[in-house]
Write a structure and sequence with these properties.
The structure holds two protein chains of two kinds.
Chain A lengths: L33 H11 L1 H18 L1 H8 L38 H37 L1 H16 L2 H17 L7 H35 L3 H8 L4 H9 L4 H24 L11 H8 L7 H29 L6
Helix pairs in contact in A: 1-12, 2-4, 2-12, 3-4, 4-5, 4-7, 4-10, 4-12, 5-7, 6-7, 7-10, 8-9, 10-11, 10-12, 11-12
Chain B lengths: L11 H6 L45 E6 L14 H7 L7 E6 L2 E6 L6 E2 L5 E5 L14 H10 L12 H5 L8 H5 L6 E4 L3 E5 L7 H4 L28 E7 L3 E6 L17 E6 L3 H10 L7 E3 L8 H5 L6 E13 L7 H10 L2 H7 L7 E3 L28 H11 L5 E7 L3 H16 L3 E7 L1 H8 L14 E3 L9 H4 L3 H5 L9 H11 L3 H16 L4 E13 L3 E2 L3 E2 L4 E2 L5 E2 L1
Parallel strand pairs in B: 1-10, 1-11, 14-15
Antiparallel strand pairs in B: 2-3, 4-5, 5-7, 6-7, 8-9, 9-10, 11-17, 12-16, 12-17, 13-17, 18-21, 19-20
The chains are: A mainly alpha, B alpha+beta.
């Protein structure tokens, strides 16, 4: 569908790629951008709103973790050996008014505090990585698609190259490399330092490998868009390239970007927990769901509280975000009829 | 002795994570986790004869499946030192002498030979064979084959994992390099007629008959020795022989038709075959063994039980848990060269035994607080009144320790050690120890290193730390003080890299030597005295004696632990 260009001032408005395909509405026809239409659709989607609510809930839990732990009167790292049966290594009791989710076998650390704090690295890693990969992917995709020629060839080669690298091996190797670069070898580094390096390296590795897919997608979109007349018109009018890229092309790419980001977020949460579970991600003493799941995995029947609470946390969060991502895609896709 | 593949010698922190194994059974109702291990006495029975006494209720037939996550490193008898392959080897290789279990106690008995006769100067031992024996192929065992096996053990470059006592104690042990490098002529061993083996020593070695229970003394016919390839296809003299072997994965044994039960005082041939499977996930596998569905009823897992399974055991599966002793004692050692005695006493006073015990996930099934040097499975163990603050238990007394430090004028003394900063348990125990010692007025500097570096750091006695170096525990090679004190506390222990406390005291050296040269029974008592004396020098914080606690399927009979190895004793097992 052709973009409607009514005058130069519309160049500052997002050009419209699609025309509303929704049902005819009463009242005067208002010109609305596809993004607004999509958001309206999304707002009416009960599943999407519920999922958004769940996501917001987890974000609040993560943000207010210290407050919640204080409310309970515990913190995530102190040991409570008095609560542990020396004979069996299990706690004497399960959940209680002092320890809402019980305590960890062996060390007696409070599981509620570890759970609320554990939401932080998951969301933080996934959030940062999603933002970084989206920005990188969009910018490089735009550049590659718009300029073609040698820039495109180089960037496309880089994208293909990154997509072909085994990311797990990098995830394993990077922390050691960072440690030896920063601290000149691992000797003398404290667990907290190692944990911090692991956290940073997780973000670096996931970001490094995450942007390439989106960049390729954006490049494809740009290739088809840049031959359109409104772009040609803008260039003829002498609009600077940067402006063409970010004012003309980018608004037309909102849909794929939003969809990609909303589907990537739960993916990175799973990646963080998965890598941590495998022992190459975060590590103790950092409270993290992946860390807890890794140490609790053998206790699924004998001390279920330890394992299942973080598993439920990840499952619900990822499920909610995935459904939300689907809903966003449906809302932005003009072909979806509902 | 080396435990499975994570040796105690490697370091206490590792020992924390991988709790070892242990032997003799503590009675039929041996599932009371608090059951203490009884003290062993040096026992020898020179008159023991085959056949071995029948196990009550034993049946013939069936196949037993044995699982473990850790994999034996080799099955070349000369190269076997780890306890897993050593114990499995008892099914296949008869040796000059052997250890029998009687009421859970280790007793040295003749196997292919008698217990030996010592010459007046103690430097020549004569062993006579107890009958005639055949290899699995029906050919006869010759006395020269015993001599050849001993010569073979000197090729330490080829068999670098094997035990090394012969290099120190046997005549010319430092010069002879095995039959390939030095030829057949070796003055340390000779044969007479068809039934006499004579061993010449460079210095007295009263525990030689115990040493001769090791698989490296099993006869090997020179003509059939394939050198490097012998570890893949070996020759048996015991009740079972090689059926198929895939290194690292599986070993199947079948009955050896040429084994004569009438000559063997230790072994039985109840089951038709053994199927060892390695590389399984221990925890999952232990659950499987406990469930005992179908073929799993006739199976066992020889790793110590995982703490997550304790509720299963206490919830009605007690009869599937077999408990016993282990030859190991785990400690946290202090370098006496770098820390003055008063400060060592203060460390002991402040030491948070209980917290570290709990953080390490120890429990009475797999460990018992230790207060001595010798573990209970070793002859000479005596449970004397623990030296002050070396109790293996308690929460530590920071105020009291601070007073001691102040009295010594050493407030702020720096204590440091290496630990693995990539694993949660060493990291957590380090944190606890650090906090406890800081509370007592020490300056504490734990040095985190990676798993890969840890081993070499711990064994470097010149490293800039003053506690926690390796070996962070010790396991007997045989159950006498002779495999402890001369190894750990003499001046040469420092250069050998196997010292506790880095003692280097000429007077102590000669005291240890004089006890080592006493006849067995007399030395036993002296070792106990020496134990208390050296413990009183605060050379190490005693932590725990390893115990054995493994799970068996519901139809496994005759299962008990071998306290000399910390492994299940396979020779008495049958399928119900």
């Amino acid at each position: 569908m052709e973009p409607v260009i009514t005058g130069t001032e519309t160049l500052t408005e997002p050009p419209q790629v699609g025309v509303t395909s929704g049902p005819a509405k009463p009242g005067p026809s208002v010109s609305r951008s596809p993004t607004r239409i999509a958001l309206e659709r999304l707002r009416k989607d009960k599943v999407a709103m519920t999922c958004l609510g769940i996501f917001v809930f987890f974000v609040l839990v993560a943000i207010f973790a210290p407050l919640l732990a204080k409310l309970e009167g515990q913190d995530p790292t102190s040991y409570n050996f008095d609560l542990i049966d020396k004979r069996t290594t299990f706690p004497y009791s399960g959940a209680s008014s002092d320890h809402w989710f019980g305590v960890e076998p062996r060390l007696g650390r409070d599981l509620f505090a570890r759970w609320v704090y554990g939401a932080r690295p998951s969301l933080l890693v996934a959030g940062i990585v999603t933002v970084v990969t989206t920005i990188l992917g969009v910018v490089l995709g735009l550049i590659a698609g718009f300029f073609s020629g040698w820039i495109d060839r180089v960037l496309s080669w880089v994208i293909d190259f990154i997509l072909s690298l085994p990311y797990l091996i990098f995830a394993i190797a990077t922390p050691a490399v960072i440690i030896s670069v920063i601290y000149g070898g691992s000797e003398g580094t404290s667990p907290e330092q190692v944990a911090r390096v692991r956290f940073i390296s997780l973000i670096l590795v996931l970001s490094f490998f995450g942007w390439a897919g989106l960049a390729r997608l954006i490049r494809g979109q740009v290739l088809s868009l840049r031959e359109r007349e409104f772009i040609a018109a803008a260039r003829v009018l002498g609009v600077p390239t940067r402006r063409v890229l970010f004012r003309e092309l980018l608004p037309n790419l909102i849909a794929p970007i939003v969809v990609s980001a909303s589907l990537a977020l739960p993916g990175y949460i799973v990646a963080e927990a998965g890598l941590t579970f495998l022992g190459v991600g975060l590590m103790d003493p950092t409270p993290s769901w992946g860390v807890t799941i890794a140490s609790a995995q053998n206790y699924y029947d004998t001390y279920p509280l330890w394992l299942w609470v973080p598993v439920l946390g990840i499952t619900i969060l990822v499920l909610a975000l995935s459904l939300l991502g689907d809903a966003v895609r449906d809302a932005f896709d003009p072909k979806t009829r509902r | 002795m080396r435990r499975l593949r994570t040796t105690v010698v490697v370091g206490a922190v590792i020992a924390l994570a991988a709790v070892g194994c242990s032997p003799s059974k503590s009675g039929p109702s041996g599932t009371d986790p608090t059951s203490k291990i009884g003290a062993a006495e040096t026992a020898m029975d020179p008159d023991a004869k085959g056949p071995a006494p029948e196990v009550a209720g034993a049946k013939k037939g069936g196949t037993l499946t044995v699982y473990s996550q850790s994999t034996p490193n080799t099955f070349d008898p000369t190269d076997v030192y780890y306890v897993d392959s050593n114990e499995i080897g008892k099914l296949m290789w008869r040796t000059p002498t052997q250890i029998a279990l009687r009421n859970g106690k280790a007793v040295l008995v003749p196997d292919m030979m008698d217990l030996g006769t010592k010459s007046a100067d103690g430097l020549t031992w004569t062993f006579k064979t107890k009958g005639t024996f055949k290899y699995e192929d029906g050919s006869e065992v010759k006395i020269e084959d015993f001599a050849y096996a001993i010569k073979r053990s000197f090729a330490h470059d080829l068999f670098s994992n094997g035990p090394t006592y012969q290099l120190t104690y046997f005549k010319d042990g430092d010069k002879y390099k095995g039959p390939w490098a030095s030829g057949d002529a070796y003055s340390g061993v000779e044969t007479q007629g068809t039934d006499t083996l004579i061993i010449h020593l460079a210095k007295q070695f009263n525990d030689l008959p115990w040493y001769m229970t090791f698989p490296m003394f099993t006869p090997i016919p020179k003509a059939k020795d394939t050198k490097d390839n012998y570890k893949n296809k070996w020759i048996s003299t015991g009740p079972y022989m090689l059926d198929s072997y895939t290194p690292g994965t599986q070993l199947k044994l079948k009955k050896n038709p040429n084994w004569d039960a009438g000559t063997d005082a230790v072994r039985h041939q109840y089951v038709d075959g053994w199927d060892f499977k390695w590389g399984v996930d221990d925890v999952a596998n232990q659950k499987q063994v406990l469930a005992s569905a179908g073929a799993d009823a006739a199976s066992l897992n020889y790793a110590n039980i995982d703490a997550s399974l304790i509720p299963d055991i206490e919830g009605g599966k007690k009869n599937q848990l077999v408990q016993g002793d282990s030859p190991c004692n785990i400690v946290f050692q202090m370098d006496t060269r770098k820390i003055p005695l008063e400060v060592r006493k203060a460390i002991a006073k402040a030491y948070p035994y209980d917290q570290i015990w709990q953080a390490a996930g120890l429990n009475p099934y797999i460990a018992e607080p230790s207060t001595t040097i010798l573990p209970p499975s070793v002859a000479g163990y005596k449970k004397y009144q623990p030296i002050a603050d070396l109790t293996g238990e308690g929460k530590g007394d920071p105020e009291g320790a601070k007073k001691l430090l102040e009295a010594a004028g050493k407030l702020g003394f720096e204590v440091s050690w290496y630990y693995d900063n990539t694993k949660p348990i060493p990291q957590q125990t380090t944190q606890i120890r650090k906090e406890a010692l800081e509370k007592a007025g020490f300056t504490v500097k734990p040095v985190g290193v990676t798993t890969a570096e840890l081993r070499s750091k711990l064994s470097d006695y010149d490293a800039p730390v003053n506690t926690g170096q390796s070996p962070a525990g010790w396991c007997s090679d045989w159950p006498t003080g002779g495999s402890w004190f001369p190894v750990l506390f003499q001046s040469h222990s420092i250069s050998d890299g196997s010292s506790w406390g880095m003692l280097s005291d000429k007077q102590l050296d000669s005291e240890i030597d004089s006890v080592a040269n006493l006849p067995g029974d007399e030395s036993t008592k002296k070792w106990a005295e020496l134990d208390e004396k050296i413990m009183g020098m605060y050379i190490a914080i005693p932590r725990y004696y390893d115990k054995l606690a493994f799970v068996v399927g519901t139809s496994v009979g005759g299962a008990e632990g071998d306290g000399t190895m910390g492994m299940p004793f396979f020779c008495n097992m049958y399928v119900k």
